[in-house]
Design goal:
The chain is of the alpha/beta class. About 45% of the residues lie in helices and about 15% in strands. Helix 2 links the parallel strand 2 and strand 3. Bound molecules: 2-amino-3-ketobutyric acid (AKB). 2-amino-3-ketobutyric acid binds near residues 123, 124 and 189.
């Protein structure tokens, strides 16, 4: 496999850690950007760690010296955080993405290569007006219900369009390159569950928080109702999805943004599995009105047939395997 130079923004986050570990184990050279210092273990896997804000020109200048093949633009303010400070959410999520699309363009032009831009979009781009509609609609397809109710969802949906705009516009400006200077591709992630990190600032966080608390013998007040249902995925599948989409031949892709699914338990079903693994776990359902509203506006599941058909997407972890082979051994070990 050709050794690639890969830039990851938000490399110190949940997805970033696993992605960095996998890419460096494959021999690629990774340049990482994050607001916060990485652990020594993760820093050792990087060619360089650029510390700072994705809105800061010095940070972008530091990254620009590399001839990058792929950018994984993970840095973002998640749904609950962005709802608490919408203007900051917009700055980080939209202006930050614009900065890196422009950087990708300049890099592509300089190297006369197409820079692949991998974008983690989200089920937050969907907005379903009522619970009755949510039950009625079931699995959503990529082009349905695109009426997001959070700043984060609005930002991510707009970014999907920005990515398409930059890819298509610059394809017209650089006809010598079949894919243009930017080859933008994205997946709409469901809630991700990692055995190694607890997310912050998201609204799907109730599931990972529930199991991490139980493993630490701490009670947990789940901030959504027991019947709440959205899709989830184990982190290794999420990272593999991004990498497989990056590797897919351009002519097999019929769209730039794909749904990907794995399993979709209710919060109650999830709590039963946690309780079966940790019989002393204390889990209460204490819904928070605002966060519940966000979850109720997201679909109960997604139709990912386009990803399955175009680039062979298939989740390796169903709910049972996620618990038995990924979460329980690793989490138990982590808090032992
Ligand atoms: C969030 O809850 O904001 C994220 C997401 C579903 O995109 N985890």
């Amino acid at each position: 496999m050709k050794k690639k130079t890969i830039l990851i923004t938000g490399a110190n986050g949940e997805i970033g850690h696993t992605l960095l570990e996998v890419l460096s184990s494959q021999g690629h050279s990774v340049v990482a950007i994050d607001l916060n210092p990485m652990s020594d273990v993760h820093e050792a896997l990087c060619e360089e760690v650029i510390l700072g804000n994705i809105l800061d020109e010095d940070v972008i200048r530091s990254a620009e010296k590399y001839d990058v093949d792929e950018i994984y633009h993970l840095a973002a303010l998640l749904s609950t955080s962005a709802e608490r400070n919408p203007e900051q959410g917009h700055r980080v999520n939209v202006e930050g993405t614009l900065n890196f699309l422009q950087l990708a363009y300049r890099m592509g032009k300089r190297t006369k290569n197409s820079v692949k831009f991998l974008f983690p979009s989200t089920i937050a781009v969907y907005g379903i007006p009522s619970l009755a509609d949510k039950l009625d609609i079931g699995k959503v397809s990529e082009d349905d219900c695109l009426m997001p109710m959070t700043m984060y969802g609005v930002n991510k949906l707009y970014n999907e369009h920005l990515g398409r705009y930059y890819s298509e516009l610059y394809k017209r400006l650089s006809p010598e390159l079949e894919t243009g200077f930017i080859d933008f591709r994205g997946v709409r992630f469901p809630g991700l569950i990692s055995a190694f990190t607890v997310p912050t600032g998201g609204t799907s966080d109730f599931a990972p928080e529930m199991i991490h608390k139980a493993a630490q013998h701490q009670p947990y007040n789940c901030f959504v109702r027991a019947d709440s249902q959205i899709p989830f995925m184990a982190m290794p599948d999420g990272v593999r999805a991004l990498m497989e989409l990056a590797a897919a031949p351009s002519d097999s892709l019929t769209r730039r943004i794909y749904n990907i699914g794995a399993f979709a338990p209710t919060a109650l079903e999830f709590s039963h599995l946690v309780q079966a693994a940790f019989p002393n776990a204390v889990i209460n359902f204490v819904p928070d009105e605002k966060r519940q509203g966000i979850i109720d506006s997201w679909p109960s599941d997604v139709d990912d047939s386009a990803a399955r058909q175009d680039w062979g997407w298939f989740p390796e972890y169903d709910l049972k395997r996620t618990f038995d082979e990924y979460l329980l051994p690793n989490i138990t070990n982590r808090y032992a």
